[in-house]
């Protein structure tokens, strides 16, 4: 053990994991002492929401298929009104971070417990972080009331997650683990989860790309996303997440794809100042993405940032901010935002350094 001084608060998380586990939803509702669940999902997953509602039978208070990215405040208001109108005493949020974010918005104001059924790898179900967007501005905060009371991870519900989204969502998860490994409030138990989360996700993604309907690959990816999400919930994120927040909030770049492009660059920036994190990631990526080593190219085993960039390339994921729609003229303002407020980060965050990082990410160059 290399970390000899730390503190650790465990979040009260309950997890049921396994193919078909969504069938245990009625038991979870009963366990909460609740009787009527409002099912929340995005319009694109209306059919999934209805199917989940059907498993609830008389415990369902209906489906609200209005979840949107970044939880617009008017959607949250409508959802709270609907929950009150139908007499819901809990919510079931089925979907990615958007659906779970809507459940959190209801929990924040009305205290209704949320049962989360995640269908992406974003990890919101493992955190006390909520977000609400009003007039183009996203407010975020932490509140223990928004932590889902129960989380059902059913890999069957991820079989239909398009492969390209699976890859970027998987990188989004890996980003949580990467930053947890060098977080100011890291601890040995979270570092173990982070390393295992990266190993599971990086190992699963090539198999998901080869066959999005492979149940074993889907189970391993979802397992990785749980661990990575738990790391997000337990630690304070640094430069990588600050940059993605600025890029998403200011330029409306797509959430998971932005994480995918920025992660290798943010990690390369921090690697020299975070040797233990680098070692853990090297171990995780050596075993996790073994499939990569079968190619003719010899990859630098001790450079996890480069490994992740290569993995993104192999999996046909985006590697350039320009390709995501960012204009070159946006580099400087985003760099300004990233250095405007101080935060913990292993390497000193300088404006020049961040500008170089963003320029490389914009151009799609290798990291470092
Ligand atoms: P998302 O929830 O917006 O989902 C993206 C799209 O994929 C939606 O149209 C959704 O319906 C669809 N989809 C999801 N699962 C699917 C499946 N299995 N099959 C087919 N389609 C599916 O995207 P996301 O990346 O999961 O979440 C992003 C949002 O979550 C952002 O607003 C982000 O800020 C937030 N987030 C919050 C936290 C937190 O701790 N509060 C953590 C991570 C992400």
Automatic annotation (TrEMBL):
Question: Which is an annotated Pfam family here?
Answer: Fe-ADH
CDD domains, sorted: MAR
The lineage's top-level taxon is Bacteria
Q: Which family does it belong to?
A: Belongs to the iron-containing alcohol dehydrogenase family.
What is the protein's species of origin? Answer: Actinomadura meridiana
**Domain (Fe-containing alcohol dehydrogenase-like C-terminal) ranges:** 167-362
All residue ranges annotated as the Alcohol dehydrogenase iron-type/glycerol dehydrogenase GldA domain in the record = 12-155
Keywords assigned by UniProt?
NAD, Oxidoreductase
- What is this protein's record name? Maleylacetate reductase
The protein's matches in SUPFAM superfamilies, at most eight in alphabetical order, are given as:
Dehydroquinate synthase-like
């Amino acid at each position: 053990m290399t970390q000899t001084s730390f503190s650790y608060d465990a979040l009260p998380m309950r997890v049921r994991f396994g193919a078909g586990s969504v069938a245990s939803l009625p038991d979870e509702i009963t366990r909460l002492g609740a009787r009527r669940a409002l099912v929340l999902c995005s319009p694109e997953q209306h059919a999934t929401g209805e199917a989940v509602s059907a498993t609830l039978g008389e415990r369902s208070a209906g489906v609200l298929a209005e979840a949107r990215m970044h939880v617009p405040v008017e959607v949250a208001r409508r959802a709270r009104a609907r929950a009150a109108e139908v007499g819901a005493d809990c919510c079931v949020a089925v979907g990615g971070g958007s659906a779970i974010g809507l459940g959190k918005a209801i929990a924040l104001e009305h205290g209704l417990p949320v049962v989360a059924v995640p269908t992406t790898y974003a990890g919101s179900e493992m955190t006390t972080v909520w977000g609400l967007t009003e007039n183009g501005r996203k407010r975020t905060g932490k509140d223990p009331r928004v932590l889902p009371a129960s989380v059902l991870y059913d890999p069957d519900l991820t079989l239909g997650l398009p492969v390209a989204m699976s890859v970027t969502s998987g990188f989004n998860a890996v980003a949580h683990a990467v930053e947890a490994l060098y977080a100011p409030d890291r601890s040995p138990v979270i570092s173990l989860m982070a390393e295992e989360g990266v190993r599971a996700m990086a190992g699963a993604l090539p198999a998901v790309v080869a066959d999005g309907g492979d149940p074993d690959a889907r189970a391993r990816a979802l397992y990785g996303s749980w661990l990575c999400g738990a790391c997000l919930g337990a630690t304070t994120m640094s430069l990588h997440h600050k940059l993605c927040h600025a890029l998403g909030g200011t330029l409306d770049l797509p959430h998971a794809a932005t994480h995918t492009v920025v992660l290798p660059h943010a990690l390369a920036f921090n690697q020299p100042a975070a040797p233990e994190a680098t070692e853990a990631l090297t171990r995780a990526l050596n075993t996790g993405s073994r499939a990569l080593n079968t190619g003719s190219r010899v990859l630098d085993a001790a450079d996890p940032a480069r490994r992740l960039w290569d993995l993104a390339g192999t999996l046909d994921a985006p590697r350039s901010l320009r390709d995501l729609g960012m204009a070159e003229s946006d580099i400087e303002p985003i760099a300004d935002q990233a250095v405007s407020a101080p935060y913990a980060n292993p390497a000193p965050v300088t404006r020049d350094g961040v500008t170089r990082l963003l320029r490389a990410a914009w151009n799609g160059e290798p990291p470092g």
